[in-house]
Amino acid sequence: MDLKEIQTLIKFISSSLVDEVSIEQKDFKINIKRNLPPVAAPLAAAPQQITVSAPVAMLPPVADAPVAAAPITNTIELKSPMIGTFYRKSAPDKPVFVEVGDVIEKGQVICIIEAMKLFNEIEAEASGRVVKILVDDSQPVEYDQPLLLIEPI
Predict the structure, then answer these.
(1) What are the structural domains, with CATH classification, of the chain?
(2) Fewest C-beta atoms under 10 Å: which of 14, 27, 109, 111?
(3) What is the per-residue pLDDT for 85?
(4) What is the DSSP string of 39-66?
(5) How many angstroms separate the CA atoms of 11 and 83, rounded?
(6) Interatomic CA distance for residues 54 and 11, integer angstroms
């Protein structure tokens, strides 16, 4: 099973009512679970009226694009290739991979995304100058979510 199939599987689980999926192949095993909040069961006592809502998967809030702000032209969005947690540096005591104003080359590591306890180095798909970093450190990201804006040079 390749990374693209795993990403598709994670996306399916997050958008469905399935709580857990386990797949075993010849030399590969994967188990994906959703973290749902537990629902408390009432104790055996006098009858009570209880309202229980169905658990909802928590997704990060989606920021609306500013309408009044002038759009940044001639930029390329570098997008997340997977769902996970975005990190700007490889360790707490290490420097960040890129800053606004830095010139980056195609193939240069721009961040790390942690997915399923694996830390994946994300490389730039294009060269240019970093105009804006769109995600805060240690924040969850979705598949195809813009991470950086770069201006080709």
Answers:
(1) 3-33 (no CATH), 76-151 (2.40.50.100)
(2) 27
(3) 94
(4) PPPPPSSS------PPP----PPPPPPP
(5) 8
(6) 20
